[in-house]
Amino acid sequence: MKMITAIIKPFKLDDVREALSEIGVQGITVTEVKGFGRQKGHTELYRGAEYVVDFLPKVKIEAAVAAELVEQVIDAIRGAANSGKIGDGKIFVTPIEQVMRIRTGETGNEAL
Amino acid sequence: MKMITAIIKPFKLDDVREALSEIGVQGITVTEVKGFGRQKGHTELYRGAEYVVDFLPKVKIEAAVAAELVEQVIDAIRGAANSGKIGDGKIFVTPIEQVMRIRTGETGNEAL
Amino acid sequence: MKMITAIIKPFKLDDVREALSEIGVQGITVTEVKGFGRQKGHTELYRGAEYVVDFLPKVKIEAAVAAELVEQVIDAIRGAANSGKIGDGKIFVTPIEQVMRIRTGETGNEAL
Amino acid sequence: MENSIFELQYALDTFYFLVMGALVMWMAAGFAMLEAGLVRSKNTTEILTKNIVLYAIACTAYMAIGYELMYGGGTFLKDLALDGASSAELLGEAVLAESAEAGFAGGSVYSNASDFFFQVVFVATAMSIVSGAVAERMKLWAFLAFAVVMTGFIYPMEGSWTWGGQSVFGLFSLGDDYGFSDFAGSGIVHLAGASAALAGVLLLGARKGKYGPNGAIHPIPGANLPMATLGTFILWLGWFGFNGGSVLKLGDIASANTVAMVFVNTNAAAAGGLIAALLVARILFGKADLTMTLNGALAGLVAITAEPSTPTPLVATMIGAIGGALVVLSVIALDKLRIDDPVGAISVHGTVGIWGLMAVPLTKAEASFTGQFMGLITIFLWVFVTSFIVWLVLKVITGIRVSEEDEYEGVDLSECGMEAYPEFTKS
Amino acid sequence: MENSIFELQYALDTFYFLVMGALVMWMAAGFAMLEAGLVRSKNTTEILTKNIVLYAIACTAYMAIGYELMYGGGTFLKDLALDGASSAELLGEAVLAESAEAGFAGGSVYSNASDFFFQVVFVATAMSIVSGAVAERMKLWAFLAFAVVMTGFIYPMEGSWTWGGQSVFGLFSLGDDYGFSDFAGSGIVHLAGASAALAGVLLLGARKGKYGPNGAIHPIPGANLPMATLGTFILWLGWFGFNGGSVLKLGDIASANTVAMVFVNTNAAAAGGLIAALLVARILFGKADLTMTLNGALAGLVAITAEPSTPTPLVATMIGAIGGALVVLSVIALDKLRIDDPVGAISVHGTVGIWGLMAVPLTKAEASFTGQFMGLITIFLWVFVTSFIVWLVLKVITGIRVSEEDEYEGVDLSECGMEAYPEFTKS
Amino acid sequence: MENSIFELQYALDTFYFLVMGALVMWMAAGFAMLEAGLVRSKNTTEILTKNIVLYAIACTAYMAIGYELMYGGGTFLKDLALDGASSAELLGEAVLAESAEAGFAGGSVYSNASDFFFQVVFVATAMSIVSGAVAERMKLWAFLAFAVVMTGFIYPMEGSWTWGGQSVFGLFSLGDDYGFSDFAGSGIVHLAGASAALAGVLLLGARKGKYGPNGAIHPIPGANLPMATLGTFILWLGWFGFNGGSVLKLGDIASANTVAMVFVNTNAAAAGGLIAALLVARILFGKADLTMTLNGALAGLVAITAEPSTPTPLVATMIGAIGGALVVLSVIALDKLRIDDPVGAISVHGTVGIWGLMAVPLTKAEASFTGQFMGLITIFLWVFVTSFIVWLVLKVITGIRVSEEDEYEGVDLSECGMEAYPEFTKS
Ligand SMILES: Nc1ncnc2c1ncn2[C@@H]1O[C@H](COP(=O)(O)OP(=O)(O)O)[C@@H](O)[C@H]1O
Ligand SMILES: Nc1ncnc2c1ncn2[C@@H]1O[C@H](COP(=O)(O)OP(=O)(O)O)[C@@H](O)[C@H]1O
Ligand SMILES: Nc1ncnc2c1ncn2[C@@H]1O[C@H](COP(=O)(O)OP(=O)(O)O)[C@@H](O)[C@H]1O
């Protein structure tokens, strides 16, 4: 099993969720985050003084999936989240050693 | 060392924290997240138009623990968070390669 | 590639971000979290009844970096976030198996 | 020309009543903000809904039947438009005759419609008190059903025995037999609201998680203190209308001066209550507790409401201060008794309402402790018992409490299907 | 001594006007809060900016030219200070002569400055209606430019044909020829605002994501319901000034009684509208919908505004209730038509404004359905057509809609460079 | 019958005073909301606490001793109830004698209690100005201690030299010797508040992180702009009472007309200030800056406060507009000087207060620039120096600034132990 973590633009969330549902990903966890990267923040003025808003609102999606699904999931996310503009975000794949569904105690792929 | 990540129902947070304290886990980090899964969201009406609230409020707990504690921690979380109802959440175990306590620079299990 | 995750005190965020920029880390993702640890929360009274605020506001920083940069990044974070006081936080290093930049589809170190 | 003077006096007194009434109406917003600030955000839409709907219900039920029960003006105010006269001219003649009889400095003569307006906003106030105490766990529609009975029947009945001058079921007369005196309603409005609230809370039980085993009390902090503070300021402002309008007449020197004194004393008592609560909380808890301070200001206001015209400003400050101190102790005591009142309504309006009534004889010779006690016990028993019955009937028929799961999820979703702050991400 | 009586009457009527005007001014805050609560948080700073700036623009444009167009008082109110007299003494003499002629119970005599103050806050109300309907996607400066034309020209023109008594381009007179009757402005203010809003919305289009293919409607919930509720309470309070002040005179028995009736009926209609909307939404949607309930209260207020003085309280409640039911249906219908109005302004002020106008003949013998219809069609056509042209010109010259990307990011950043709730972490 | 007329005049003028006073009281809520919106959320509970407690302190200290110092009415207002008469009858006689002497159109005769009520809310206004400037870093209890001295002594002293008509320590008389003229208190209230604030800020220093090395300025955005906007609307509304009530008499034609003009001009100046600030900020910063716009409206109000009765509406708009432009520049300048004022209070009330005073001679023949300057320098020096001393004493004894760590964590926790928005998760 792998954990697929994607940082995307907030307004792409619904599209990504649908794309994942379509390929059978049954669960995801979403976090509101701020991102700092190549996409530059904007310079604002507050009462005449400048400040840089470096951190832009992003959304982090985490989906634990069976190892064999990884490529498909990456494609689905990329397909839905890609707008071709800077700041579209990243996808990270990390290993999971164990999973358990709290309700049933199931583990492994059944628990996803 | 392992990172135990649990997605649970928000109102179970205090129970889980206590269960972890009891078995000697000294630190955890908690994030407010939204979850999408088997537990279906509800359909709401706003001014007459329907919309589905797919994302339900969940809490993510992260605890870095010594490898030998993993089973015990999983049991503790499950014991406290299990209500037998759909949506109770998941537990993920992932590897940690290194840990450091910022204050002291300690690493390894001492840093937890 | 490794994921460096640091839990720090919120007011250290800007310092850490600058320290990371200086050593060439080009992107980070930040999450507002609550921490529970050795640093004890405070006991408050609300309308005469006591309650313990165990969870203290923290900030989680995630930076995916090339494996060879890990030590340098850890040092930079520690340098900026260390105030010598309890609760300064932790740094975790975890493996990343794959990275992709959504916009371009680049993978590996180029995608960071 | 004398008639013109009477006309002006009528116009001025009517206007005064309307302005004071508008200020009291504004208190409905104050209660809504105060309560919305002191509950958790998952229960905010429901408390807002309760507050604004109860205001509408109070206005409608009191118009339909309540005013008739309390003062006798016909159901649906059918003769209100011209005070029963058949033309504007005849209204004018009737008013002038009344004024001539009363004399310039005599009893007040004003538009009946303005009287209704002033009275109806009081009804809503009484009902607003209830909504805070039963917050975060009561079913919306059960609450609204109760509001109909409370504003259409329970309150008007006790109102008829006090301000309405009727005897209590033909048994005794609070005014004539006991000289019961309650200027603007520490008892008639505030204690009444608190009594209904207490009955509801007892049947409803505490919020899940509020009380633990071994007497443990787990605070549930309000989600939005700026809103609670705004609500308190609104109530403070509105109270000038509440007490100031209860002089009932403005249009001669003595009356105008009394109205002014009532403003000064109302303000002084609120200030006294606030400072006392601040200091008592400081002493007991070692810190400045904003929510107690807000309750203290309201306690000062409730305390002076029973008699704001006779004390000196210094005495008014002290009456308010005692109210402010009392409210802190009462909140703690009710928590010990596991009577869960999220906003402190029973303490502010009930405990301090009693203090307000009992303080009247201190500055007003005509009032007696016995008379005041008779009044408060009559009001309390009537409202508590009838409310208890109504709540009980509702409990049996429809239930009054949401399910445990709905309570965890928040009543906003189960009762209103709408979150007060629905956004997850900002963009 | 008769003069003293006239002086007092003048003072009382002037004061009454000022107090009512202050209440109407307060409505500007109500619209700001209502709208800020019903948009998403990323568009909040801009809607606040629009609301407070439009109030300032309305005050300035109406002072500069609008009042002159509507009532003829000179540009920049140059003679306002002493009503055109050259000294305070001569002003006094002129007023007394006017009073003597009018007679004590005759037409109202008050300070011209108080009249301007009361009128100007009405202009701002009309303009506030627009801001809500075009929220979340319109360019700030285009909106402000429109506000100048609306408050300086479009509104004053139709105002001159109605309250100003002028003929419509010399063609016909709404008052003399048709007996058009609109007490406080269901049509003149509310329908006018809604007509301008409709023109803007049609040219502007719906918010991105509001409507999907196959008739799908995607709700966009407002970010802060406590604020929206506060706004509604503020509007409710302010409306007592809006309708109550429109009696124009207080200082005799008949007038004072009318003012009081107007207060009672205004309140009753709001309550009726609220309850009807609550129930209709309950029946249609199976739940208590707070935003519809708030709209219902406002609908009740708009409905009664065309004639709050003649109905009985029961009839007023019913007129309001029909307004409250209508507003729910209208909101649904406009959504079906893909006319995107984030706060329901077109339904509340337009649809229900029409109902208010048409309901006048039900309780007022002098009014006719034809006359009312002529009035509403005149107002609608004039405001809609001129607004449409102005919006169109703005669209061509500067554009009226922000870019798609700015809309995603929120207009707060693109138009104001400032977030309403800028904090990421609390510490 | 003449007496009845005097009675009505007394009643009307008293009522007018009370209504205006209630509006000014409402300004306390305005300051609370404005300031709570412009600080960070971690410092919100404390600013709310400061604002509502200072209001209570002002009311109590001014009652205890301040009013006596300023106008001489006895400590604790002991003779207020009947204006020193021993019965209501004798009060009536005394008033009628006074009225007869003053004449119908002469000096105002009203209830002493209404005068106190109106005056006391001014004191609170002056003190509210201070709380914003020292926000986010001052110790709560030190602030409250200062409030006692400010409202009980510092303000009443300068009030006694101006509105109280006393000579300045027997040296000179601002009124008699210099014809100093400050209608409603651009100097006496606003500049005074700003002077006390400036002294506090200088001793306190800037918030951590506000100023960096090399002249860098790091903005600290306010957490809640809807609240700040609401606060501004509240202040705008309250200001009608502030200026409108300062005419002191309503009950004859000339006075009523003046009151109406004051309303019109107050409104016009606020609108002018708002628009000017909007445009100046647009030019300087290239965008619509809501916080500057809000400050601009308040600046317009402060500017016209020194003389709202003599300008024409056009001139009032311009006086306000200059105030609005000035406030933007002043905010920038103070930041350059590293004088950290989170809400812009010193600029709005100080800088523009000075402009307001100096603008009086432009429209009022009796006033001179020298006289105005003498007044402003007297007020500034007195308040600044005494405040500085009091702040210094507090600094030495208890400290006035929270620890650096508490400042990072937020003063809500260290000073009040209570978060304004305590929720982590919604459920
Ligand atoms: N090395 C990294 N580690 C963690 N998160 C990153 C990293 N680089 C970028 N991100 C996240 O991805 C977002 C988008 O990255 P950015 O560099 O702005 O654009 P792009 O994805 O087009 O390269 C950032 O806002 C940040 O949240
Ligand atoms: N594959 C997954 N990857 C990440 N998070 C998941 C995954 N599946 C479920 N979750 C999280 O767990 C929560 C509960 O899952 P759900 O399927 O609703 O019920 P259950 O845990 O009973 O199977 C979800 O709301 C989501 O936050
Ligand atoms: N074992 C752990 N797993 C995950 N997070 C931890 C763990 N221990 C500590 N933390 C996080 O680090 C923060 C600081 O830890 P704490 O024990 O208070 O102080 P210190 O870092 O000085 O040891 C905590 O608030 C928590 O967010």
| Helical residue percent band of chain D | over 70%
How far is the first residue's CA from the last residue's CA of chain A? 9 Å
Topology of chain A as a string of helices (H) and strands (E) = EHEEEEHEE
Oligomer: heterohexamer
Quote the average pLDDT of chain D: 96
The largest sheet of chain A is: 4 strands, antiparallel
Largest sheet features of chain D: none
What integer is the average pLDDT of chain A? 93
Q: What is the succession of H and E elements of chain D?
A: HHHHHHHHHHHHHHH
Low-confidence stretches of chain A: none
If helices are DSSP runs of H or I spanning 4 or more residues, what is the number of helices of chain D? 15
User: How would you write the strand order of the largest sheet of chain A?
Assistant: 2-5-1-6
Give structural attributes:
heterohexamer, A: 112 residues, alpha+beta, 4-stranded antiparallel sheet, two-stranded antiparallel ribbon, elongated, D: mainly alpha, 0% strand, binds adenosine-5'-diphosphate
Chart the SSEs and their pairings.
The complex is a heterohexamer, with 3 copies of chain A (112 residues) and 3 copies of chain D (427 residues).
Chain A: E1 2-8, H1 13-22, E2 28-36, E3 42-46, E4 49-53, E5 56-65, H2 70-81, E6 90-95, E7 98-101
Antiparallel strand pairs in A: 1-5, 1-6, 2-5, 3-4
Helix pairs in contact in A: 1-2
Chain D: H1 2-38, H2 44-71, H3 88-102, H4 112-133, H5 140-161, H6 174-178, H7 186-204, H8 225-244, H9 253-285, H10 290-305, H11 313-336, H12 345-363, H13 369-397, H14 404-409, H15 411-416
Helix pairs in contact in D: 1-2, 1-3, 1-4, 1-8, 2-4, 2-5, 4-5, 4-7, 5-7, 5-13, 7-12, 7-13, 8-9, 8-10, 9-10, 9-11, 10-11, 10-12, 11-12, 12-13
Concise structural overview:
Chain A is an alpha+beta fold and 112 residues long.
Characterize the structure shown:
The complex is a heterohexamer, with 3 copies of chain A (112 residues) and 3 copies of chain D (427 residues). Chain A is α+β, with helices and mostly antiparallel strands. Chain A has helices spanning 13-22, 70-81; strands at residues 2-8, 28-36, 42-46, 49-53, 56-65, 90-95, 98-101. The longest helix of chain A is centred in the last third of the chain and has 12 residues, at 70-81. Chain A is elongated and about 60 Å long. Chain D is mainly alpha-helical. In chain D, 70% of the residues lie in helices and 0% in strands. Chain D has helices spanning 2-38, 44-71, 88-102, 112-133, 140-161, 174-178, 186-204, 225-244, 253-285, 290-305, 313-336, 345-363, 369-397, 404-409, 411-416. The radius of gyration of chain D is 22 Å and the shape is globular. At the D-E interface, helix 1, helix 2, helix 3 and helix 4 of D face helix 1, helix 8, helix 9, helix 10 and helix 11 of E. One adenosine-5'-diphosphate sits between chains C (7, 35-39, 56, 58, 86-90) and B (27-29, 62-64, 101-103, 112).
